[in-house]
Automatic annotation (TrEMBL):
Protein's name according to its UniProt entry: DUF397 domain-containing protein
Any Pfam family the entry gives: DUF397
Superkingdom of origin organism: Bacteria
Residue span(s) of domain DUF397: 3-56
Species this protein is from: Actinomadura craniellae
InterPro entries documented for this protein: DUF397 (IPR007278)
């Protein structure tokens, strides 16, 4: 069973528009917490790390 997690910061702000992540066998899953039945993105560990680094630097998406 896949275990999805939401950022602990989301609970502090009461926001409902958050993403959830899950560790998959060979990747990281990312999905919309408001529509979990809508599917998810699958990123390699390296791509997920690069995404997080861009977000932390407040850079636009590629």
């Amino acid at each position: 069973m896949t275990r999805w997690r939401k950022s602990s910061h989301s609970a502090d702000t009461g926001q409902t528009d958050c993403v959830e992540i899950a560790r998959l066998p060979l990747a990281v899953g990312v999905r919309d917490s408001k529509a979990p039945e809508g599917g998810h993105l699958t990123l390699s560990a390296d791509d997920f790390a690069a995404l997080i680094a861009r977000v932390k630097r407040d850079e636009p998406p590629l």
